[in-house]
Amino acid sequence: xxxxxRSRASVVKAAKTVKEGPVGAVQSTVRFSERIESWWRNHxxxxxxxxxxxxxxxxxxxxxxxxxxxxMALPAALIVAVSSLQQLxxxxxxxxxxxxxxxxxxxxxxxxxxxxxxxxxxxxEQVTYISPQAALEEFQLASGFGEALSLLGTNPLPAVLLLSxxxxxxxxxxxxxxxxxxxxxxxxxxxxxxxxxxxxxxQHILEMGQRVVILVGFTLALGVLLVVGNTIRLAIESRxxxxxxxxxxxxxxxxxxxxxxxxxxxYGLFGGMVAWAGVVLGxxxxxxxxxVLANLYQSDFALVGLDFRGLLVMMILGxxxxxxxxxxxxGRHIARIEP
Length: 339
Prior knowledge:
- The chain is α+β, with helices and mostly antiparallel strands.
- It has helices at 2-19, 24-54, 58-86, 92-95, 108-119, 132-143, 146-150, 173-184, 196-238, 240-248, 253-296, 308-333; strands at residues 98-102, 124-130, 160-165, 189-193.
- It folds into 3 domains: 1-41; 57-89 and 202-336, no CATH class; 97-194, Alpha-Beta Plaits (2-Layer Sandwich), CATH 3.30.70.3040.
- It is built from 12 helices and 4 strands.
- It has a 4-stranded antiparallel β-sheet with strand order 2-3-1-4.
């Protein structure tokens, strides 16, 4: 009642000042400045007092904020997981390398001709030649059968060309398939190998993850709207008599619902902040385990964290949802309360 009374008094005072002001251009200027000052003073007062009102019932406020934070943290954590997996796309170029095996008995001039032919293909960005001797030495080190392989009278390994496709073909499964078919038609090439199954699996996993994030995010956003709307509805019912008095003295619906809109905004902002903090702390807790697992696979994989921009996004999203949920609640219930 005190908040509505003070705000209403400020509006009346501003209106009286405008009415008694000078005529002409000065009156228009005073009227506009007084309206802006009254508007700013009223919104500032509503925002401050709605924030202070949340501290009156800290347990209920904390529970509501935690529910909103949990609903926002789950899709945020999924986004972090998908973004972390997308780091692996930087290593797709290595996985997308095409191994071209030449005939074992291919002459040096034939090998050189094949290299020139492959380098001239527009789909190829880089060609690395591995001689049969270099391939044998690498296989001896990798397999651990160096002494046994040294007993062979001849080298059974062929010359190999490692081809790196253009960057725009790395994620293009159909384009890589067509390139492999073209290479297999070249005379002198014994076989072409590409681990396309890995690329297909990774691509589909990321696509599925993105769709899951959208679905879960949309569902939980509706949950946030319902939580905020129900909380604001209970606040309206608890202050029904106060609203009736304000309307009796001439308060409009817009004037009455303004404090409740700010309450929903505060709920959303604090919920977004707590959600961001929860995701960041969860990332710190998992970082050491992920680092150990990545080292076992000799990878530099690491979780992608939420930075300050992530905090701003979470606060803006939470504030928007809180404000929208409050608007839906007050738009429906305030109009029903009439003296």
